[in-house]
């Protein structure tokens, strides 16, 4: 039976359209860093490299290698950690050229360094994307977070962030970092901007 993250991990990936608290455990990711406007081709190339790696793991049994503990699953959605350069933080308005990001795709628990290296070999032999060499493997634990579902254009996210900030103040919380996470639940190439679904997440702690 195929493991479906949409069914088995609704709390983490299908939040409500209002802020809520969630505890996020340690998770494994394939990651790649970048900077600048995500509408540029460089961002798309990094996304392609990530998906090439992710599907190399998913299809490994058909390529003659079955990792220990492997099970059928649906590939996890693209996620991103977003920050601004020092210059970007001083500006009154968002300049997308000053964005710093790490985009990533979560991996099942059976993935380890050996599986990561195997995936690189499979991906590189299939499509020799130059950016594959920049993909890394590691674990991240967000811990206590405030998250909500944002419906609509990415440019309208500040409206949802305002709700989250209000929730944080009301519940005697504070952000532990200015970096925020976005989880992309829609295919941006096949979905109208007003129908896009994105999970937004701030990492927080209780004020002592």
From TrEMBL:
InterPro entries from the UniProt entry: GyrI-like (IPR029442), GyrI-like_CCH_Lin2189-like (IPR008319), Reg_factor_effector_dom_sf (IPR011256)
Q: Which residues cross the membrane?
A: none
Q: Name one Pfam family in it.
A: GyrI-like
Q: Which domain of life is it from?
A: Bacteria
Record domain GyrI-like small molecule binding: where:
18-200
**Name listed for the protein in its UniProt record:** GyrI-like small molecule binding domain-containing protein
Q: Which species is this record about?
A: Mobilisporobacter senegalensis
